[in-house]
Structures are given as structure tokens and as C-alpha cells.
Amino acid sequence: MKPLDSDKKPETAEDKPAEAAPAAPAVEEKIDFSNVEIEPLFKDFVDFDTFSKSDFRAVKVKACEAVKKSKKLLKFTLDDGTGEDRVILSGIHQYYEPEELVGKTPMQIKKAGVAMAFVPEDRLGMGLVGSMGMGSNMMLRSWRKGKGAFVNRRDPNKLAMEVMEELEVVTPSISTPVRRLSGGNVQKVLVGREIAMSPSVLLTAYAVRGLDINTSYTIYNLLTQQKMKGSAVVFVGEDLDVLLELCDRILVLCGGKISGIVDARTATKEEIGLLMTKV
Fold first, then answer.
1. pLDDT tens digit string along 124-160?
2. Cα torsion for 269, 273, 276, 279, to the nearest 10°?
3. Which residue, 190, 252, 244, is CA-closest to 222?
């Protein structure tokens, strides 16, 4: 008895399907940047006057409103430092809804998406609870994240350890009451907690009053880092040397009213002093 497949002819090399040829290795396309020129504005140092008249400057948004009969356009009124307001249209209405923040409470502003942080002048009266340790004081910012009647202590304690290590806070432990710490260490705890929230606006009032020079420079560096990250830092102070060194713009108050706003890079002590006395 012959096998069932005995009638089939043996396959030859010609009958076999041709194998697909191996794919050629992908060649990475390189872009030639040799003919790309840098904008002249960025080649050399640019003074403030030139920068304020260029198209690369930062601007102040004075007003934002929806364009009538349009679901996409918003109209922005900008102060670009030239003395004349500029009006532009932007098609971001589907992603951004203008909202007036003046008159709202801090909690309402936070719910609107603006993260705020505050370093008050009175560190232990308004900023921290002196009888509690670092971990518990960190929890003052996150206690709402707990579920039900329970609070999450793990994350605040972790943040306290990070602040203690990164800012070199001298303390026996994170559970030691902060009122037992020196003024400089108390301020490091307070500032470290506030900047850990990645604020959009950081308000500080006399942030280095009563601190030694080393701690003062630490606080200055922390505030500068926040500015470089894009946060709006409002620094309330009275030392003109520090204000002229740290600030971009200085708003001067006299008699409870604004007497002037100057560019810190070109302003002098004499000019600010005259604004302080309304002379």
C-alpha cells in the first residue's frame, strides 16, 4: 500500500517561493545646520532699552476678553514697555477661559489654577506652628489630601526629610518642635515647604530679617531659582542694596500708595529714595 501523498511530485528549488530580500538598514537623515544664522539680538549683550523694544521681551497682560461671535479667539491687551498698548488675537479660547481674579479669596484663586505660596514676616506666628515638628508643619499644606478622617503623614514626613537634607536644616529630628530651632533653620523650613508646592506666585515678606549672612544668601538663591523656573516672585523688603541686586522691577510705596515702578537694572538709590518720600 502506497502512502497517500505518493502521487505528489517532490518539490524542487524552482517550486519554492522566493524568500523576501533583507530590508536595507535605515539611514539616519542628518540636518545641516551650518547655514543657520543666529538672530543678531542674541549674539551680543542687549541692554534693557533695546530689549524692551524688541519682539522677544516679556509683556504684561492688562486685559483678556473673549471675541464676540467667536468660539476660538481671545483678545489680549498687552503692555510691552513701549508706552503704547498692543492688542493681539489668539485662538486658545477652547483651552483657556479668562477669569477675573481681583476680589477673589486665596482659596478661590487656587481653585482657578493659580498655585500660590506665602512666606510671612512672622515665621512662627503665621508661617509655622512652633509646637509641632517639621513633618507636621509640612502637613499643613497637604492635610486636605487625606481620605476621610485620616491624614496622610507619609508624604509630609518624606518632604520634611528632603528639606532637611537639601537645605541643611540643623535639627535633632523632623519631630522636634520647630520653636527650638534657630531663626535661620526655621526660615529654611518655611521657605522649603512653600517652594515645594511649585507655586505660580511666591510672595515673601522680609524673608531674611534677623538671619545670618550665610542663611540669607541661601534664601536669596532659593528665590532666584524659583524666578528662573518661571514663578512670579514678589519680594517685600527694605534693603535697597538687596532689592537692586535681586529684583527685575521695583514697586515703591509711600503713604500706602504706589509712587512709582522702576527698572532695578538702571535705577539708583537716589531715584528710589525720592519715590519713597514723594519728593
1. 988 999 999 999 999 887 766 656 556 677 888 898 9
2. -140
3. 190
